[in-house]
Amino acid sequence: MTIRRFNHVILADDFFRSAANGLPYHAANRRFLRGFFDSTLGRLGLPVREVAPLEGGGRIDVARLMARLDLPSTPAGWARACIADLLPVHGREGMPAFDPGCLVIGWGLTPALQHCIARSGASYLDIEIDPRRFTEHLHFCARTNDPVIATALQARRVDEEVFWNHAAALKGHFARHGAPALFDPRLRIGLFFGQSLVDLSLVSGGRTMHPASVVAPLRELARSVDLLVIKPHPYEPALHDLAPVARAIPNVAWTEENTYALLSAANVHFAASLSSSVLTEARYFRKPAHALIRADRNAAGQLPVACSAWIPVGPELGAMDFMTAVSGIDDAAPRHFAAWPATAIDRAFMTRWGFDDQSRGLHDVAELQLSRPYLFHPGSPATGWLSHGWSPPDAEGAKSVGELACLVIPLPSLAEMLSHQQPHRLEVRIDFRSNLKTTSVHAMFDGTVLPGSCTTGAKRRSLVFEVRPTAGRKCLVLQFVVADAGRGNGRRAVAKPGFTLRKLQVSLRTARGVVSMPPSVSSTQWSEMRPVRALARVFRALRDSARGVTG
What we know:
alpha/beta; elongated; 22% helix; single chain
């Protein structure tokens, strides 16, 4: 006798993340669930329907639901809805009424939706891409409130050694193809990984968290290393969320290197983030990981008591044997099952989120020779210092890309040179050319905005400043913030502001006769420049660019 545990299936995602709350709604994941499970569920005779907000072609009126929950229709309201009690709106305004005969297959279900489903007597299977994305093929991870489904998932669990083995193979790859250390092996480095501006994993206590809220613990971590290196999210062009970190922590640099090459580097001592999935991956590269927030989506106190842990599984999640075991239709199960294609998930998502087995690894970075002039052209050792925000150099030099660019320059050992009684200075001279006369370039060094680095009105410019050398200084890190000083004057920009780095020279000088930089007491701390109109324009430009991305 056939015993059906479920009489219908609902496919759902986080439908509160919609235009009604000022956020983009992405239907692709829900449509993937339909395509992936449609054949098996149809053969089992289980009715299937999708639920979605109005703009996604569904019937759910998110604006009315938010009003019923007494929450604002804003991104902040969405974050609070992620942990709200949804039972009062259950079955209202197009939201489905879950029942004991219902199986909900969801993609990234919020804690609030999981509670609502569980309290209604229904079962759920919550699915995402497993965060360990460095394996040869992607995997799913899944969790459930149903013990039968949990048993079926455990029976298909990916062995933990698979992840260790793939990480070891990747480390071997980067050991042969690239530098063994980031920037300079003498440097102790910590990594801070950025995230997308809108991400369920950033919601903590019903609030969306930002790097600015974790500057204090991040500063403590930065004190344990020579450099805290920021790796922005590869699919998040707006950097304004990370700017507070660069303003508040002096020993910060930026990088665009491959994530797994960074985790393989011998001189990387930890990985930190608000809650990035990279922290899960860091363990397999034997790097200490520091999550700076407690995300609601994985917090035991926010989830149903019966919710299982995330279980890694392969693409066979959509196979007939799995669904028959889940639904209890034992006599419908065939005796033999063909293997699922190993590339099923890869082909569906067409991206690897940082995995690239063709990457040559970390760039070799040359040590600077004092008093030698360096041109930024192809083949020059200076091109290895272009750590973030540059296009490939050409005959004219290295062109900046976006609002922020960074140089990391390893220095020779200064201990012997500074043994004399006479005081010394390191004079740094940079020649660059702006693409617009109104381009404003702000240079920052050791948490200080350099005097005279904000210049407009001429395309050819030079920046000259001095550094007090110490025996322990191992590198120079320069950050450049680029903006259009003419913005807001009614002039339409014909090109994005930028500049071309042409030449750099660092010389060791005695104090006598060097007047290119005022005493350090006149330098203004980046975090203290309030109000400074030019900097306000810079970060207003960064904020506006972010608004364009997040809608």
